[in-house]
Write the structure tokens for this entry.
Amino acid sequence: MKEKFTKKIKFISKLALLLLLAMNLSNKGYAQTAIVKGKVTDDKGAALPGVSIKVVGTPNGTVTDVNGSYSINVSKSASLQFSFIGYISQTIAVANRTQISVSLADDAGKQLNEVVVVGYGTQKQIDITGSVVSVPKARLSELPTTNVLQAIEGAVAGVNITTTSSVPGSQPAVSIRGANSITASTTPYIVVDGTPLTQSGGSLNDINPNDIASIEILKDASATAIYGTNGSTGVILITTKRGAIGKPVVKYSGYTGYENIAHMLSPRTPQQYLQKYSDYISETGQAPAILPNLTEIQDYNAGQTVDWIKQVTQQGIITDNNVSVSGGSPDVKYFLSGDYTKEKGDIKGFQYNRVSVRSNIDINVTDFLTVGASMFYANNNYDGGRANLLQAIAMSPYGKEYNADGTYTIYPMAPEQLYTNPLLGLTTQSLNRSVNLNGIGYAEIKFGGVLKGLKYRLNAGYNYLPTRVDTYAGRLDNVPLGSATATSSETTNYTIDNLLYYNRDFGKNHIDFTGLYSSQQRQYFISSFGGSGYINDLLGYSNIGSGATISGLSTNGASGTYQDRYAQLSQMGRINYGYDSKYLATVTVRRDGASVFGANTDKYGWFPSAALGWNVDKEDFFKPVTFVDNLKLRLSYGKTGNEGIGVYKTITTESTTRFPFNGVSNIGVQPTNLGNADLHWETTVGTNLGMDISMLKGRISGTIDAYATHTYGLLLNESLPTTTGYTSVLSNIGKVANKGIDVTINTRNIQNSSFRWETSIVYSVVRNKIVDLYGDGKDDIGNRWFYGYPISVIYDYKQIGIWQTSEATQAATYGAKPGDIKFADTDHDGKITGNDKVILGQTTPKWTGGITNTFHYKNFNFSFFIQTAQGMMKNDVDLNTTEAQGRANTLATVGYWTPANANNTYQSLAYVNTLGYNYPRNASYTRIKDATLSYVFPSSAVLEKAHIGNLTVYASGKNLYTFTNWVGFDPENNSVSRGSNGDGNNYPLIRTIILGLNISLK
């Protein structure tokens, strides 16, 4: 036994020595180098100068000369990567060769063969017949945002995104190809990984932008008709990242940065404020006074001033940390991610925190069965009382911020009580949170044999969204007895899709069929109650029942609680046909049934569409046109719908009310909604003519679409005689029309081995008009709806200047005096009345555009994006300061008329706005939206030793500068007047400067 053991040891030792010797020889072989030469040409044999040739895994490389030739000294076991802008890269192993010549194919064809997500499936770009646009992936991966719409703004033709408020955690407003409804929602239908986000009660704030792999936007009727009653406002398809075959890849991305108000407007300084009040006293003929209020006079005499803007603002900070792990085998692929976002607003009290976790997994159970699941959890936190910026502007610099005990004064300009301390909101206890728990599962069966090409897929999704909003305002917030509210809601939603696919080629014929049977249901419940009359403020909203008065709050017409249910049942069929990749056709029919429509109507509607495509470049007669790589013409026509109403609007509803009878409080009912059992969805019919083109080996490419849509059966409130007990009833009446052009152009201006310059331009123009309202041919002046004009217009008096001292006599004939606003007498009756109002403009842009320039120099990358929106007007609330002229501060940028300063723009301090003029102004702007500078570290021994595969550092700025004639914080912002209930949410546009890094571990 001992001898056998000794022999085994000797044998293993010899084997180990042989292995070590082989490894040594192998290492020597790998270490051997040789000069490799060759030539790089295109697929037609023409030499390609400036082709980048890199040794894989090292920073070494070279470029081809003017003849396309190269020479490089490399290890015989190395691999060479050949890459050139406009061509498909190739990686080739040296394998002891000394001559390697390569032919690169242009990537124009590659782009056409890229797979694009469309409704309920995917298609190659070359086969798409509808208007489908993919959001540039660079904007998804290189711009730090809390909401992905912030990255898309201005970058996609035909998609209008507006940042109406920069409140942390707020979501921009978005519309596709204009408004095609007057009262119904025009927000696009949003689908994430095949399941609807729009109908589930969730928002895009729940989706971590780092998890998004691609976004496609469906714009024309052919593309959106597949979503039937939800398609008329356009569709946004979001696909999240999934695992790929390979060892686990760990990635970290993080950034931190500062936020500041992009265009800070300051109130008048103490000296300017004193002068303004002096001018006001003089113009109104009052007795001379230094300041209007006793508190102000006391602080003036004491030499005390307050910088209210400094008191309500702070340094805004935003941070984000994201970690993901992905990988898999041929049978199991996975993607896991976790993200934490924290934003401290630039105005005190505003903040937003989000924690999200996502898990995507795909499993090939057998050769014919694949199952998978996608799950995510998002927790949004908007807690906190908030300071009030508009009230801070209104505060006198001689106001008193604190009481003697250190608490905030209620009325800093006492005895003035119109304006309260802008910091009072910070004393409010506020809890505002929402959760989105989402799970999606699927099973996919592929058939073989005679059923080859047939596939069945089952998708099932479930959402659970609880929310909680609790507040308490007490004595420190000017609520003497305290007031508390507690509101909780939950939304549950499920979607089940049965999908049948058939995809086969028969010679030159290609057939792609998709069939759908889908069911969706959403249930919503909310409970809300409040109290007042608390002996102290210690418990806040923790014990609302201890108040002297407890009441259920009115919620959607119900007292205290409310519940509703929505259901939809759908069937759909789509056939894509292609012949020889030249001639394409798509036919789609969808049938939707929705629970929200009336009992007297068929709750089902049919939504058909058809589209044709022609790849002209594949025709024999077009081959002589060598400078055009690809040319496709598209034509589509289809019908889509818009539900446009909430649940139970088709039935008559009543609410409870208390009334006295014989000295006793009794409960009765009162009408709230007159139902209309004939209600059905709004219907939109649209036509789209498009062209896709690529030229000069992809150096120039672009898309042009011209479209026209008509929407009829609008859901409008029709007036009723008051004798009916109701003032209006919702009816299907009215028509609107849209037409426009979308243009996208991409160019590669310069491309060589070390420097590249690329440009992307988008341009959109849309014309919207009302075709019909109530069938009587009359305008609805009260709602500012006019035949032949856009849905949203500015209808007001036309300001033509300011009455000057020399015009006193003429001004008196109009009941005005010098310093008052001069309005146009449009009806020439010698007086200014409501009949002189005219349509001054529209609130939506007549055209929008954007240009992105990207520069690559070696490992440095720099890009900047400029967007513009032109041709719109808005009411400028910052100019409407009549009540503040003698009682509060105003913006230093807003001037005023005096006899000595006879400007022709701003009214006098004594002007009284008796006509209710809204001060409309041009709100057009051009903005340097963002700029990013990044550096990609090349492969090195240091990175290899640290097991770092990729390392990128970057600096990014957002909302850097705005060119505009608008007087105010920003033309995009939806501000409200001082003193209104919503002014606490006035939050100007924010400029953000970010530093970040992306790391991928090996």
